Amino acid sequence: MTHPSRREVLRDVGRGMFVAGLGAALTSDLGLGRLRADDATDHLTFGDLDPLVEFIRSTPPDKLLAAAVKKLADGSTDLKTLTAAAALANARAFGGEDYVGFHTLMALAPAYHMAAEETDPKLRPLAVLKVLVRNATRLKETDGAHHEALKPVVAAADKNLTGANLRDAVRKVDATAAEKTFAALCRADPTAAINPLMEMVDDATEVHRVVLVSKSWELLDFVGKAHTHTLLRQSVRYCLKSEGYANQVKHSQHVRETLPKVLDQYKLIGKKLGTKVGDDAFVEKLSETLFTSSPADAAGAVAAALAEGFAPAAVSEAIAVTANQLTLRDQGRVKGQTAANKPEGSCHGDSIGVHACDSAHAWRAIARSGDARTTVTSLLLGAYQVASDRSNRGGDFLKWQPYPRGEHSEKVRDVPADKLLTELDAAIRANDQGRAAALTARLGEGAKPDAKAVFAVLRRYAVSEDGALHAEKYYRTATEEFAATRAALRWRQLVALARVTASAHGYAAPGVAEAKRLLVG
After folding, report:
1. Which of 40, 133, 365, 383 is least surrounded by Cβ atoms within 10 Å, i.e. has the fewest?
2. Is 202 helix (H, G, I), strand (E, B) or coil?
3. pLDDT-based confidence at 175, cuts 50/70/90?
4. Per-residue model confidence (pLDDT) at position 302
C-alpha cells in the first residue's frame, strides 16, 4: 500500500479538532509515512516525551526510584509528565495483552490523583512511584525493554468505516483488518474515537474489557489527545485476544443478543435523552430492581428509565449504588479461591464486589465521555453487568447482609467520637473488616461528617499495601463515586472502601519503603 503524503495526512487529520496539535506523534503511530527520510517506521515514537519514555523503558527496577526522585527534585520533569511517559511505555510494551501490564496501566491515573490528595508535599510522589516500580518490574520480567507489542500501523484507505466494521473484524479475529480499521477511525477524528471503539467493546461485559477503555481515555489528559490511537488501540488488541477463546465468545452471546433487542424495544437510538433528576427514592428503587433482576431485566429497567426521561446521571447513580452493595455484602474468599496475598475471608483484589464497583464506575465514566449512543449502551451494559456479577459469579448476595452487620455495629457503639479515627486505623492494621466498616459508618453519622479525614486514613494504606493490583483503582472508584452520589447514599462508598482496606492490609507494596526513604530522607 502506498503511504499518503504528509500533506494528505494533515488534510485528513484536519477533520478533527486539533490539526496543529497532532504533529508527528499521531502520524508516526498510524504509520502514515515519514516526516524525514531517516525516520524509523517500525517503532512508535512520542515526540517530546520520547526521552522520558526511554527512561521508563530502560531503567531497571532497582535503579528506577532513585533516578525518578532525582528527576523530580531537580525539575527535569514533574509527576504528571512522568505518569504520561509511564503510560506510553507501558502501552507500547504490552499493548493491552499482558495481565500485570494492563493492571499497571490502569493504576497510573488513580495513583496520580491519590498523590494530588496527599497533604505532605514530600510524600506526594509516593503513590505514583509505587506504580512505576510495578511497571518497571513487569517490563524486566517480560523483556519489555526490547519487546514492543505495538508497532506503527497503516490506516485503511476507506474513509467510510464505522464502529460496526471494527466490531465485525474483531469477531472474525482479523487482527490486520481490525488494526487498520481503528487506525482509520482515529485518523478521521481522534477526539471522538471512543464512540466507534465502544461498538466493539459492547460485545461483552467483563471488568478488564471496560476498565481498560475507561482508564486509557482518562490517561489522555496526561499524554495528550495526539496519543489517542496508542492508548485506545490497546482495547482493540485486548478484544481480539478475547475473541480467540471459544468459551468467552459463547459466554458473550447472551449480551450480544440482549443489547440490540432492548435498544429496539425502547427506541433509544436517536432518542433525545431526558433531564429528570429523580429523588433519593427513585435511585434506591431502581438500585433494588437492578440488584434483584436478571442481567437482561436489569438492562431493560435502565432502558425503561431512560425512555421515561430520567437523566443518564440519575440512572447511572443507581448502577453505582447497586455495585456498592456487592462489596458490602461479599462474604469473602472461600477455600479454593485463595492465593498468597488473598487469604480466606478476604475481599480485596479481584473480588466480586471490587470488580463490580470498578466495572460500574468505568461504564459510568464512558457514558459521560461519549455520544448519545455510547451513553445509552454504556448504561444498559453497566446494569447488565452488575446484575450478572450478583447472580453469576458465585454466592447468595440476596441473602447476605451488608457490612456493617448488627454485631459489628454493636461492638463500636460505645467508642468515643474523638477516638473513631484512631480505632479505624487500628482495625485496618488488625484486618478487622467488620470493625473497620462499623467505625466508618459511625464516622458518617451527624450533620457534617468529615469524609476528607476518613479518606486520608484509607488512602495511606491504599499506597502502602500491595492491594493485589487493585488498590489504586478501587480507591479512585470509591472517591469518585462518593463525589458523584447524592448525600443520602454516598457514605456507603466509604464504608465499602474501609472494609476492602482492612482486608488488604499486611501485604506491603514493593518499593514503597525505599521510595519513602528517598523522599523524606
Report:
1. 40
2. coil
3. very high
4. 98
